[in-house]
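Hi F.,

I've been meaning to write this up properly since the lab meeting, where we talked about keeping a consistent format for the predictions we share between groups. The idea is simple: the sequence comes first, exactly as it goes in, then the structure tokens exactly as they come out, then a line or two of notes. No screenshots and no reformatting. I'm using this chain as the first example so we have something concrete to point to.
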Amino acid sequence: MPELQRLRADHAPALLAFERENRAYFAASVPDRGDAYFTEFAARHAALLAEQETGACHFHVLVGGDGEIVGRVNLVDVAGGSAELGYRVARSAARQGLATSAVEKVCLLAATEYGLTSLRASTTRDNPGSEAVLARTGFVPAGDTELDGRPGVAYSLDLTALRTRAGAVSGRRYTA
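Output, unedited:
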């Protein structure tokens, strides 16, 4: 089972390979990152790490046994106790429960380590896999939205109950 790790500088080569190898797969369900993302990857990666240091974002990767990255789960736009959740899993690792497991772990981190009280997420209506992950992890529909010109659904998750439940289980806290 891949390990959830907080994004670090040494993840850069594997993360770039993950994004390149899965670009077409991801673009079928989420907006494409564009060519600049790949040509300016090193600078962008450094900027993300700097932003993470401020607490405005929390980036995570799923790292397999041989060091390859098979997924990522991000919390962005952290403010006022809330953040936006985003995630993606490699085509080769899809349909194995990895997205659900990773989202669950990041939600727990959001509640217990990052001090957040709620999360937001969204997906296009033609992405039933993502809708299922959000439903399995406790997100509830919060209204319609549009993503890159495509109809979508916005979701929300109240982390208060998760924080209370995590605090009640003595000595069993997940840390990345």
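Notes:
Residues 168-176 have pLDDT under 50 and may be disordered.
The chain has one domain: 3-168.

If this format works for you, I'll send the rest the same way.

G.
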